[in-house]
Amino acid sequence: MCGITGYLGPRSAVDTALNNLKRLEYRGYDSAGVAYPNCTHVQVVRAAGKIANLEGVLLATPHAANVAIAHTRWATHGGPSESNAHPHGDCSGRIAVVHNGIIENYASLRSELVASGHQFASETDTEVLAHLIEANLPSGQPGPEEIAGAIRVALRRVRGSYAIALISQDAPDMVFVARQDSPLVIGIGDGETFLASDIPAVMRYTRKVILLEDGDFATLTSERIGITDLHGVPVLRFPIEVTWDDAAAEKDGYEHFMLKEIHEGPRTVRDTLRGRMAGKGRVELPGVAFTPQEWAGFQRFVIVGCGTAYHAGVVGKRLFEQLLHRPVETAVASEFRYSEPILDAQTLVILVSQSGETADTLAAMRAAKPKGAKTLAIVNVVGSTLAREADATLLTQAGPEIGVASTKAYLAQLTALTLLGLFLVQTRPCEPTGATQETIDTLLWGLHGLPAVLERCLQDEAQIASLAESLAQHSSFFYLGRGYDYAISLEAALKLKEISYLHAEAYPAGEMKHGPLALVESGVAVIGFCTQPITNEKMLSNLKEVKAREGTIIAVIREGDRVPDCADAVITVPNAAAALMPIVTMVSMQLLAYYVAKARGCEIDQPRNLAKSVTVE
Ligand code: F6R
Question: Residue 271: in which H helix or E strand, if any?
């Protein structure tokens, strides 16, 4: 999705804003632009395509300035072109605005502005903002307070989501920003101020950030940050310290962020477990703000998320049912909201999200609360909207995830869900749970040794890479499994399709003969997960059915298990407790997807049509 950066201070503002904007490239975009005040007007420079194209244009454009705002656009209203790229200006060319989000009532506002004489130069919803603000400015040369007032009045008429940054020729040492349902971060430096739509963009310069909240409007200079609501009433926002390692936002010698992040899997799991595995075989969740009575009172669980985060929930459902013997539902966030979910005060709605800013997941949380349910966010980004608004938060410790395809965050989500499941068992000692003490102890020990097991998975990288070379020739993939193996197949198939653009479909293995088997023929690859002793025999029969139709079979088996006769190739993964096998297996599946995409020459970190952090519904 779109990215915003901005800078005020002694450095070259344009270069600093663009360097920081590159840290947001992972979010996916199709054009870029920058605006800065010069002596006579606000200079806007834009280019379709990559930031490098914009830099090419800037080589021939003087751009010395101490204030700049910059933007990467992911097309929604109007195609990807230079004229639709941000920043957008008003008729006078005195203001320029960048925007993330969607102005829902832009069509009626645009008609009104056109009727009163405003001339539009793009097809975007954002341009409406520039003209609407212009319409509210007094004639002559407005001062900072008048500009701020005009922006606030304009924003009060807007319906939709936005993070905006605006500069004006009439207040050349200032940037005006506002937020509604789209993240915006202010970085506080020494005599300089940064702004961005995501924390990694400012981490190189400062760890002290203010995360604006919905309805906030701020006036920035290099020395001062003034925050009010949309009526001009001052609001207090305290800075937080970001503890993420800045190196985590760099490739660190890896060819792609995705590969680096796959290799960070073991560390991510270790960090997510840290401080939560107490002695005497117990789990502790310090900072997760429910009382013992609340914990013990939850009778039903609903796990909600999008994409990879939803897939983590599918694994979590099985685990919770096994451990707690309580009803657990999973829901795709975009469906949950419109499905009239049956919730009450004894229901815990668990929202899983890496970014904590996914619009559908936020909407699901906001739909659950009025029904009396308690909400728990399993989230990676401290201070994100989900983390702030949920009743309680369990942080995953994946660090910044830059590659669009989620990898280490998924491992962290599964680790957090396992900890949560075990913790919930502890909160109801008098209840007969579904899990035996032996199962619980096995899981606890398994979690303890998990980072080392994942390190071993990574040692098979070369072998998986060479298998991927041959698989890259296949036109279509099925990922089959049963139970936990089916849950993992959902995420494994998603990884392949999003970065290699190959058709990949996950199916419960037993369902194949109820329809999809008709699609199997030579050239179709089938990844069959056989990591669950309880279903392995049936899985083998299903794979034989595929073999009889000339599909290529790659069996995923545990170390020490017999290689199935029907397999054309095998991926062997270390053995672990049944409920932990999804975490173990996923490392190999992430590597497989990565190397297939690489063999096909795909743009791995920024796959086509996709964006990190989907902040529109
Ligand atoms: C896939 C992927 C997406 C995200 C989804 C939710 O690799 O990354 O499917 O999982 O957009 O994002 P978060 O977790 O930020 O809510």
Answer: helix 265-273
